[in-house]
Amino acid sequence: MHAGLNLTLNVGRPAACTIVLARGALQNLAEILAGTTVRRAIWVADQTVQAAVGNLVDAALRRAFGSVDVITIEPGEQGKTLAGFAFLLGELERLNADRLTTIVAVGGGSTTDSVGFAASAYLRGIPYICVPTTLTGQVDAAVGGKVAVNTTAAKNAVGAFYHPSHVIIDPALLPAHLEIPFRDGLAEIVKVATISDGPLFEKLEDLAADQVPTEQVLDELVRRAVMAKLALLTKDPFETELDRLLNFGHETAHALEKALGHAIRHGPAVAIGIAAATRISVKRALLGEPEGCRVLAVLERLSLPVSIDLRKSAEQRFVDALRQVMLVRAGHLRVVLPTGIGHGVIAPAVTIEDLTTSIRGS
């Protein structure tokens, strides 16, 4: 054999992400970023977010960076597409962004997802910061480094694992948003509480159904939800294993969103997924009926749906979307089922028929 090479290159993906969770954290951004060498920022948000918190964000960024520009994107899932991704790359080129430019994603989960993906691809990766302004963004989407856009085939079909340098979680930004996005975020807190944090679940049970929590209660909900997610995430940050408790309710949610053309919001879709998995778990005697009733009751108390009736055409699209999920999970749905308040397991034997029946409330 001729002389050559036979070696192993260590291509591990080290990444450090600083998460700052505090009321008023945005106003302290300059202090948080002190010592960094990046001097230019381009922040990205939709028009609604710019109108609500744009002055606060722009002022905070100008105290932290020498140069600040802004890109306006389409709101929500409308901007989380391949076309939206291409638009972001084009805007970064137009603004002459370089490897020393930081992108700042300001908004909900769709914004942090799409901006993070653009950051991962532009010039093979430039730094970005997440400033989530919705409850879903603060307790879920902006934490964990999963970035993606949707395609016609599936939700989050094209993406990467690319952690921001910083996540600035400031609960003071939340009142700028309407009640509906806030309820969406509560669904994500129910998710992580049900499978991993019993005391957090009890705090949700104590919430007044028709009132926004006090600042103290809200800050504690956000803190506990973030800590619960990190506890599950840090064991496998790049999802090398297919079994993930954090998927609780989400195989159903993503399939519903696809089936309905995103006419259903993510929070209600997650709530229906949680309820469906809970019913299946009770039927299989993995979860006691009293605990199952508690899960359904807390969703309803928080004005979140627990069932849905799909028309025949939408139901077929739901089934097709679940089959797509199976393709990326080694032929199984790997549905997460609660086994107690604060505990859950992966149940690979759950079928598409099980979920189709259970989302109806059966």
| Biggest sheet record | 6 strands, parallel
- Pattern of helices and strands: EHEHEHHEHEHEEEHHHHHHHEEH
CATH class of the largest domain: Mainly Alpha
What is the count of DSSP helices, taking H or I runs of 4+ residues? Answer: 14
Uncertain spans: none
The CATH architecture assignment of the largest domain turns out to be: Up-down Bundle
- Structural class, by secondary structure, is alpha/beta
Q: Determine the strand fraction and express it as a percent band.
A: 5-15%
Sequence of strands across the biggest β-sheet: 1-8-5-4-2-3
| Envelope shape | globular
CATH homologous superfamily label of the largest domain = Dehydroquinate synthase-like - alpha domain
Whole-number average pLDDT? 91
Radius of gyration: 21 Å
For the structure shown, list the relevant keywords.
362 residues; 2 domains; two-stranded antiparallel ribbon; Dehydroquinate synthase-like, alpha domain; Rossmann fold; alpha/beta; 14 helices; globular
Topology:
Layout: E1 18-21, H1 29-32, E2 40-46, H2 47-64, E3 67-73, H3 76-79, H4 82-94, E4 101-107, H5 109-121, E5 128-132, H6 135-141, E6 146-149, E7 158-161, E8 166-169, H7 179-196, H8 198-205, H9 215-233, H10 250-259, H11 266-283, H12 289-301, H13 312-327, E9 335-340, E10 343-347, H14 352-358
Parallel strand pairs: 1-8, 2-3, 2-4, 4-5, 5-8
Antiparallel strand pairs: 6-7, 9-10
Helix pairs in contact: 4-5, 5-6, 6-7, 6-9, 7-8, 7-9, 7-11, 10-11, 10-13, 11-12, 11-14
